[in-house]
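It is worth pausing here to work through a concrete case rather than discussing structure prediction in the abstract. The textbook approach is simple: state the sequence, then state the predicted structure, then interpret. We follow exactly that order.
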Amino acid sequence: MEKQQKATAYWKENLKYLLILLSIWFLVSYGAGILWKDALNAFKIGGFPLGFWFAHQGAMYVFVVLIFVYVRLMNKLDKKYGYDE
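Step two, the predicted structure:
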């Protein structure tokens, strides 16, 4: 595979991962914290409504988990295209 083609394929796959992970974060932070909060507030976590919890803490936890998922995906991608050192 030519060097430029390899770099282009690497970048396209990286963008795909970014779009998927950022979409998940958006759905959790905006969706669970704002759009679906009334439905989620029927459930409680630690005495607080679930919609409130997602708006104030849950989205941050999901973001941290997504960072670790992204690191793992990128390490696999680096090995796949030979960019690991």
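Step three, interpretation. Strands lie at 44-45, 48-49. The first strand starts at residue 44 and ends at 45.
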